[in-house]
Each structure stands twice: as structure tokens, then as C-alpha cells.
């Protein structure tokens, strides 16, 4: 009997020890959703799951009890068949149900509206349904009679862990008596993960207190609020984020407060900004991005208020959408892109842009001076326009930024909608986050390679209107989240953003899944789960099954990069087994387990 088949025999024996009567308790795939109304299949992949050292490995379990039990969860002594004790640790999560009341239909998603068109085939299932998704770290849970409970065991594999196959059991006990247990196993390889994942990721953090806790929110910028920010930032960091985007000058209580004197000159208070920078840098964040000034056009994203230095009162100096008040006149009269081009060249728009641009220039000069004094130039990144409509608008602000912040990198999400010569954006942006449809265009591959040779970074974000792609939605297969790591490697992309880590916009993510559009409407709204990957907990954000599955993809991406350093042909060969393109990739969890195992075995042999 070969070593591999011997291992399979022992895993089958180990996992098949029955629970006590009246209890079903078994392991399921971590990258597959568990639904309330569907009996999940036991873990199909029967080998110990392969993992590198200095990593984390999540394992999902299902429990169905015939009686109500107040129980405690523990993990028993974990060791190899040779008696080597596991020197890592385990976090235990309870995964809870949330409703999915609609199927994703771009920005027309609405409860009661069925899945439509060709995208329907890419959905995991039709709504409505309930799915186990938010994960809360806890060791005491209540098992309800004849109802599913879902657990997730998150193993921390130390860098000095001895390679080998480790076996253990998750134990459910009640009143000091063991009620049931379930076995698990994993294989630790020699390969050691670096301290940070190779893929640079960011889930945009919404920092208002009500978006960070499910309890009564504290006052903005109070000590309690800062603690929620810290806890949430740590959670995002634990799940791979090393970049954070922070709000700057907008709203009544901005991170950077604007002042205006009697002559109309602007100045800025950076005391809150300094606290923000120091907090995120202390956690380990590597890059901190100043949120863009504008969206689509050169116009304020939100109201900008300034404190008058004469009387101390706040006054609005630029209202939201200040430069685009006449846009509807053009969009109603002309078809796209004629409407875009005529509006962009209009005298009214250009005059307001010049006024707002002068304010931006003062802000950039002041901020550059401040970050230079603080020694933060290497970690600070400046955003300009989110999804700019024209190259000329982006060039206008990029030139201002280059002049005012000569050695600060510029970053933005750019989808180049309707821009045929979109390569003209490239010299203007150091970190270009491309929309996924743009990545598929024929000339983009060579553009990415050219940018890499110039030392420029290229990443990706996904719009939720194309369900062929691995979108991170609640009605798509969970494996899509893991697939992203392989797909981004295949395309040579270095970074990824999700626009909304926790952008609830007043919705309760435990009671609804349709993503609210600006203003809060869900009739219709964004696709289900699009507005959040993390959920509000008691003391900050808590992860989801999508976050855990995505983290597996981060590990895969990093291992492929490690292999690329010594054996690029093998890395490319393994990558091509999982993905052909953004719209053609493996949907089987087993395929990812095998690819991870083979990848690690090659690394072990080198």
C-alpha cells in the first residue's frame, strides 16, 4: 500500500468514529456554503488538507442535535501518528444564518424579483434562502433541537511547526460530559509563508460608529469609537489586508478638518489624521491611501465643511456634486459618449473644476508638507477620481498631484468605460486597479506587462453585473472567493480591492442581504452581499465565510509566487489547472485541495 493510500485509510477510519446517539457531527468543505434547508455533504476530499507553515487553515463542521444542549467547544490534543504535539493554536467560531431575499441582478437587485437572463446559470441557487455566513468567535453555543449549527475551527500553524500529518478532534461537551466529537486532520508541509501575503488587498473600511458595531454606537471619534476602529482594523489585517483607504476631508466630522480665514485661504488640522496613521501603522499596515476627492467627474464626493477662523463656525465650502449640477442637462439631451464629451468640455463644468481644483491643490501641498515632516511619504498613497469618465479629467488632477506631491504614488480604480484609448491612463496612475471587464480586453495583458516593467502596480476590482466572474456575492458559489487568488496570479495582477468591507448604509446585514445604494434604498439595490464582506460584531467587525474562503486564495497566490521564484514553469502549469480566464475556472473544492497539495510537494522538494 502506498503512503498516500495508507493516509487515506487512516483518515477514513479516524473521521468515521460515530457520535453519540441523537447527534450528527461531521466536517464539510470550508469553501462551500451551508444552507439551512439543504443537508450538506460530508467532506469529500479524504486526504489531510495541505497547508504551509506560518499560515492559517479553516475547517468547517456541521452539527444537528435531536435535543437542546448548552454546550462548550474544545479541541483535544492534536498530534501526529508519531506523537509529535501540534504547537499551534485554534480559534473556534460559530457561524450563523442570514437571509438572502433576492438574486443578484446588478443594481436592479430586489426582493421578489427572480434571477434573470444568462446570469442565472452562474448562481448557486435561487432566492429566497438562508445561508450560514457571519462567523463569531466563541466556545459556548446553544444547540437547538433538529436545527443545524455550523462551527469553524481556525488553526494557526506556526513557522516552526514540525512538518507532518496532524490529527485531532473537536469536542462538544455539556455539564462536563462529552456529548459528541468529530475528527479532523491536516498536513503541515516544509514551506513557510512570509509574514504578509504576496497579493496586496484592501476591503474599504467604512468607519462611522454605526458601521463597526451591532450594539448602540458610541459618539464619533470618542475613545470607544477609536477602539472599534482598532479592533476592526486588526480583523481586516488578520484576513490579509495590508492597505487601508481612509476618509479625509468630507462630512461634519472629517479625519482632516479644513479651516478658512477671512481672506478665503485654506489650512488643515492633521491631529486626527496623525492618530489614524499611527494606529494603522502600529498594527502593521504597509500602505495608507487618502480617499479619492471625486467619483466619475472632478466634483466633491460629499459636502466639505470648513471652520471659519474668525468666528469658529462651520460653513459648507463645497457641496456634494458641486461641479456636476448641469450633468443631467447633457445626459438627457445626448447619447453616451457624446453627452460625456460635451459636458466635460462645457464652460460651466470647467469653471467649477478650476475652483475645486485650486482647493485640492492647497490640500495636497499642505498634506505633502505634513507627511514629509512625519516621515510617512513611503506609506502614503493619494487617490484622485474613482472610476474617472475621461482621461483629460484624470490627467488634470494627476498633474496637480505630481506637482504638489512629487514622490507620492497615485492610485485609483479605473474602469475606462467607453474610453477606447484607455492605455493613456497608464502614465497618470502608479497603482491602477482595473475593473474586471477591462482586464479581459485584448490589449490589456501587454499593458499589464508594460506597467510591471515600469515598476507600476496593477490590480483588479469586480463589478457585480457580470456573474460569470468570481463575484463575492451571497448567491454565488463560495469557491469563487478562493478562485480569485488563482485568477489574479494567472493575469499577473498584484493587488485587489473590494469597494465595501462594511458599507451597510443603514441596513442590518443580519436581516437583509440586498446592498443599499447611496441614500439607503434597497428597492432596488446592489447585488446580495455586495456591500459587505465583514459583519458588525460587539467589539468591531467579525469575518464571514467569504472572508475565510478568500484567505485560502491569498495563501494559494502567495505559494504560487514562492514557487515562481525557483520554478516559474511549474507555477504556471499549476495555475493553468485551476483557471483559464476570469470566466473559466474550477468550481470544485477538491481541485483546489489537490492543486495546493501538489504545489506544496514541489516546494518541499526544492
From TrEMBL:
Q: Name one Pfam family in it.
A: GH123_cat
Q: What is this protein called?
A: Glycoside hydrolase 123 catalytic domain-containing protein
Which domain of life, per UniProt? Bacteria
Q: Where is the Glycoside hydrolase 123 catalytic domain?
A: 209-563
Organism expressing this protein natively:
Limihaloglobus sulfuriphilus
Q: Which InterPro entries match?
A: GH123_cat (IPR025150)
